[in-house]
Amino acid sequence: MAVNTTESVESFTPKRTKKSAPLVSEGQMDQDVRATATALDEQPKRTVRLYKGEPGKEPLPDEFVHVNGHGYLIQRGVEVEIPQTVYEVLVQSGRI
Q1: Residue 67: is it exposed, middle or buried by C-beta count within 10 angstroms (0-12/13-18/19+)?
Q2: How far is 93 from 49, CA to CA, in rounded Å?
Q3: What are the residue boundaries of the structural domains of the chain, listed by start?
Q4: Residue 92: enclosing H or E segment and its boundaries?
């Protein structure tokens, strides 16, 4: 039996239960993103240079790190300063 997954997904509406957390408003999300940006700006900075790849081969793509709504696109092969939390994300993910 074939199932039309597009129709199944589009018609699915999750039901909230009494235990569900309240939805967060757009305004609250914006405040949270700004608070994260401020906290990241105030953190100690780390200087890193991401590995560009093997000589003679196509370079690896730049690295994107996302922390609570605030993103960093880190260019490979260039020394850059990043907040401590962004550095920790790169270390924990094995990228540096």
Answers
A1: middle
A2: 16
A3: 44-96
A4: helix 84-92
Query: Which burial class, exposed, middle or buried, applies to 80 when counting CB atoms under 10 A from its CB (0-12, 13-18, 19+)?
Result: middle
Pairwise CA distance, residues 37 & 30, whole Å: 11
Q: Which of 48, 33, 41 is nearest to 91 (CA)?
A: 48
Cβ atoms of 38 and 32 within 8 Å: the answer is no
Report how far Cα 72 is from the mean position of its chain's Cα atoms. Answer: 8
pLDDT tens-place string over residues 60-91: 999 999 998 889 999 999 999 999 999 999 99
Rounded-to-integer distance, Cα 93 and Cα 77, Å: 18
